[in-house]
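Comment on the following before class.
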Amino acid sequence: MKKFAALLMGALLAFACAAFAACGYDDGEEKDASVGALEGNFKKEATKDEIAELENLQFEVSAEDQTPSEEENPPKEAEPETPKEPEQVQTEKLAYTSEKIKLGLQLLADFTAGYAYEEADKSVDFDTDYMLALVKRDSGKYALRGAGEVSLGLNNDPEMTITKRTYNVYNDSKNVYLEDLDSGAKVRGDISQALKYAGEKTSAYGVKIPTEIPETFESPNVPSMPSSSREVIAALGDLIESGVKVYLDLSDGLKIKISFTPAAFIDYVAALASVLPGVGALVENVRKAIDFEEWKFDGYIGIGGDGLFSHIGADFDFRLKLNPAAIAGADESSAVRFKAKGGCAAKLVAKGTILHPADPESYSLINFG
């Protein structure tokens, strides 16, 4: 398994990148609650000694997670997969296939973000509730499925009026399907083709992107405590040394709150982007070019009583000014104002069902490139 510290910080800060990448600036009504936050007792800042004590935490691992090793119980040879008759679900518009979830990751986002340069204001309002799930096949392997709703509002006019459009979105290992609930239009895109196109665009920067998603996967391995405890402790200890505040709540499993200062946030975003040539040299210029007017960026991690990671999220609320010319070391130019408020989260789901289009060929195929 990759070093957990990098995985942990990368996941938290990837949520923040969505806010920075969003186009728009909104001075209107703001969101009151964040889907990324966890409720807990986070009043007292944790010390390195208290974080080190996490090594001694006890979790109740369920019986089904205590799987015998292959040496003790050699796996039987998998039989050829036989497709089942799908269970059809009829809605007002379309028929769907219903499949039971073996393991799911619920992806949530709800935020407003934007930017303004001189008199040109733009804004975006983004909401999604998407389930990315593995469904078990007769062969014992797992197939990828995804389903959810995405709502996107964009604004380009001075009145700052946001017009939203809502889409039903689905995916399997081959395609992404999109249904516009306003117009009824249905399109699908080939995932391998999209990955290949993205790989061609990013290869010059040294970024490698896989070109396809396997149709089936082996049994999933969910990160858990205490198997990942050393990585968690190392990551949190490193954060404290860099000036980040860490809070622990051990009343029900383990809940962790990580509060980033502006300086630490820039450091970790720079670390994420370090795969791109020349990024390291720009960090100091970026630090000088940004004026943080308001700032809150908190990461949350939830670990259940069974030791499984159940929640990772980000809750942010910030305003900043950026001088683009200063990043390149040039003289001061007109500032760009950025603002974002809301949150993102990924939550583990063990049971449930997921709907998927029963008529995928009815979605028009779109080409990338």
